[in-house]
Amino acid sequence: MMRGYKIFTGTAHRKFAEDICRHLNIHLSSATVGKFSDGEVNVQIDESVRGKDVFIIQPTGAPVNDNLMELLVMVDALRRSSAHTITAVIPFFGYARQDRKAAPRVPITAKLVANIIQIAGVDRVITMDLHAGQIQGFFDIPVDNLYGSLVFTKYLNSKKLKNPIVASPDVGGVARARQLAGKLGLDMVIVDKRREKANESEVMNIIGDVVGKDIVLIDDMIDTAGTIVKAAKVLKEKGATSVMAFATHPVLSGEAYKRIDDGELDELVVTDSIPLKGTSKKIKVLTTAPLFAEVIKRIYSNESVTTMFS
């Protein structure tokens, strides 16, 4: 006999949670999430969850600390309300960029956050395009890391580009670019850059031939847009016909929107893993709500998630 499941959300991205529920044909369960006058998170679960499998939709994008704390407090409230299982659905996993000790006396915040989430009482995590795949190993609970390329591939095929080629905006993203290139049966090139300081980058040169090509840049996130916009400029200087970029998580902080509007990038395609903070005629948003809805349904029914990516 199935226990039944419920879906809750914090304030990070309510529309995304509502879209998932619409695809599952269920209502979004009620919880009051607010703050005391000093900013402390206050949560009240407004309906019974005893014996239920519960899913919390809560990306931990900006403001990262507030959204992460909301998730943790909701988990605690649900655990104390006798939920049978708690799955944290975190489309964008904040603090993922510090995933290793790359310099002396620095933290590994991705591991720290993984520990905190587990200690709070989460039984499983569903996320998408982690900044580094090894973050899954920071958890001692099941982690389903979904791929934004599932929605990107369909959109890219609809563009019917004449001479497409996949590009990685840096050496670190080669595996991601190679996966997409293999799926589409395309060649790939690499943009080699040197980062002088955090959130600043300098494109150095292109590894591969891009003359007459329609470039498809692929990355897990776009923050200040410095790397992507500079890469587009250099690619066109090297002879590329057009440059479009796919980035799963539209962080888009600082001068990102201005850089995109003023730069050589023809189109930026992102997902709705976190809400956009601004607008641009160059930005196209693809929904991943059906993908997450299907994964939630399969997990609840004890069906394979892996077969979705075959």
Walk me through what this model shows:
This protein is of the alpha/beta class and 310 residues long. It folds into two domains: 5-146 and 289-309, Rossmann fold; 149-286, 3-Layer(aba) Sandwich (Rossmann fold), CATH 3.40.50. Helices cover 30% and strands 27% of the residues. The protein is built from eight helices and 14 strands. The chain has a seven-stranded mixed sheet with strand order 10-9-8-11-12-13-14, with helices on both faces. The protein has a five-stranded parallel sheet with strand order 1-4-5-6-7, with helices on both faces. A two-stranded antiparallel sheet has the order 2-3. Helix 1 packs across helix 8. The protein is globular, with a radius of gyration of 20 Å.
Task: Produce the secondary structure layout.
Blueprint: E1 5-9, H1 14-24, E2 31-35, E3 41-45, E4 53-57, H2 64-80, E5 85-90, H3 109-120, E6 124-128, E7 143-146, H4 149-159, E8 164-168, H5 174-184, E9 188-197, E10 200-207, E11 214-222, H6 226-237, E12 242-250, H7 256-262, E13 267-271, E14 283-286, H8 289-300
Parallel strand pairs: 1-4, 4-5, 5-6, 6-7, 8-9, 8-11, 11-12, 12-13, 13-14
Antiparallel strand pairs: 2-3, 9-10
Oligomer: single chain
Task: Determine the N-to-C terminus distance.
Answer: 30 Å
Whole-angstrom Rg: 20 Å
CATH fold-level assignment of the largest domain: Rossmann fold
In the CATH scheme, the class of the largest domain would be: Alpha Beta
Strand order of the largest sheet: 10-9-8-11-12-13-14
What form results from the Cα inertia axes?
globular
Give the number of DSSP strands: 14
